[in-house]
Amino acid sequence: MSGGTNGALPQPASPGQAIDQKIKLSAATTETIFKAARTLNYFNTECASKAKNIADTGKKTLSYAGPDGHGACLYNYSENKSVTQLTEMFQAIAFTMDEGRKLDFMHRFDRLGLYSEIDSLRHEVQEKRALELQNISSSLASIANDDALMQKVRERAVMLLNQAGEAK
After folding, report:
1. CB 3.0–4.6 Å: which of 3, 12, 144, 158 could bond 105 by disulfide?
2. Where do the domains of the chain lie?
3. Which residues share a beta bridge with 60?
4. Residues contacting 150, CB < 8 A, separation 6+
5. Which long-range contacts (CB under 8 A, 24 or more apart) does 13-16 make?
């Protein structure tokens, strides 16, 4: 038997796999996060809903530690609008980061699938389910500048870069 590979493509990071990567948040997002933290007494509050028969969407923790206070709250579902807003914001940022890794993977191994993926990202940005695109600007720029890709893919990447404030 030879020592070659089995022909399988490497896979992008799986959900739940920890990835240590710095992110940069816009001033507006940062202001929203800290305003909510202050409003929620730095998460020294009951976040979890007391309602019965709530679907298990996974345990979530909001925590804060700073010179002006500290605290944490654990919840599956919350009826508190500030908690819900923060949860959706953090999930949208995480989605964007995951999407950046997926675009890098597809750019290397599945160029034909890029149009569908980048179009899906465009839709998620419109729906506010993808935030802080500047964190994946290098992935988008790489796609936008690759003359071997379809023009539509490159145009969508440029459009997303412009939305991120990172023109080509």
Report:
1. 12
2. 27-164
3. 75
4. 114, 115
5. 13/98, 13/101, 15/98
C-beta atoms surrounding 25 within 10 Å: 16
Yes or no: say if 99 and 136 are a contact pair by the CB < 8 Å rule: yes
Query: Crossing angle for the helix pair 114-126 and 81-109, nearest 10 degrees?
Result: 160
Give which of 77, 68, 126, 135 is closest to 101, Cα–Cα: 135
> Looking at this protein, which amino acid is placed at residue 38?
R
Tokens 């949860």 — which residue?
A: 87
Three-class DSSP category at 133: helix
The H-or-E segment that residue 75 falls in is strand 69-75
Return the amino acid letter for 167.
A
pLDDT digits (tens, 9 = 90+) for 74-115: 999 999 999 999 999 999 999 999 999 999 999 999 999 999
